[in-house]
Amino acid sequence: MKYKTCISIAEKTPAKIKQTLKIGLKKSDYAEVRLDFLKVEDIPDTLEIIKKDMNRIVCTLRPKTEGGKFPGNEKERVAILKLISEYTPFYLDVEFNTLRKNASLVKYLKTTKTKLLVSWHDFKKTPNSAELKKKMNQISKFSSNIKIVSTAKSTDDSTRMLELYSKKGKNNLISFAMGDFGRISRILCLYLGSPYTYVSLGKAVAPGQFSIDEVKKITNLKK
Fold first, then answer.
1. What is the CATH number of the domain that holds 40?
2. Which is the catalytic residue, given 2, 147, 203, 216?
3. Strands of 57-60's sheet in order across
């Protein structure tokens, strides 16, 4: 079985995104373009630059409240999310909390038939199993593509995130834990059914992230 990877790209200029994306897509199945690292005015140009590869791109526009870098206000961010959806990326990653508070955005994204990846992160801890299962059920009301990520303080925390795979039902689930204790879950999630795991080209974009070369060595990926 071939395990898939998604390279996280967090560059600060359109030119640098273009350059890194070209390298990234030669090595990896998908690329996550973190548009929140750009200046707001550079996002439309970047979308034009990357549009030919959109069928392999996960677009993310993370707000600061969710560990991202987006410099504008929420109204601007929602408008840009709508714009991104018109480019039909492989996935548009939108936070569960954003969708929960914004019915008009949910409605709009349905009209563009965007493939939504609904994400939820806990940057401080890993909730208990009952809380995680409840969260997953809430998220699944918006999409069957779910990303649920916690911060591991122990190997038990990682195990708890991986246990969600046995409860996933019809969901396309990406579930792992961040941090040193969570590193192994970034690999094991592939064996449990995750469509891909997030990797870096070298420097980790998120805590505990492996590089693409490390993951290839571990899983014997041929790409």
1. 3.20.20.70
2. 147
3. 172-178, 145-151, 116-121, 91-95, 57-60, 30-34, 5-9, 197-199
- pLDDT over 90 (residue 111): yes
pTM of the model: 0.93
Catalytic residue check, 115: no
Q: Rounded to 10 degrees, what is the CA torsion of 9, 11, 14, 20?
A: -50
- Note if 147 is an active site residue: yes
Contact 125, 151 (CB under 8 A): yes
Q: What is the residue range of 110's domain?
A: 5-119+182-219
Number of structural domains in the chain: 1
Residue with tokens 């809380």: 131
Q: Read off the pLDDT of residues 150-183 as tens digits, 9 standing for 90 and up.
A: 999 999 999 999 999 986 666 799 999 999 999 9
Residue from 2, 22, 64, 121 carrying the catalytic annotation: 121
> pLDDT tens across 95-106, in order?
999 999 999 999
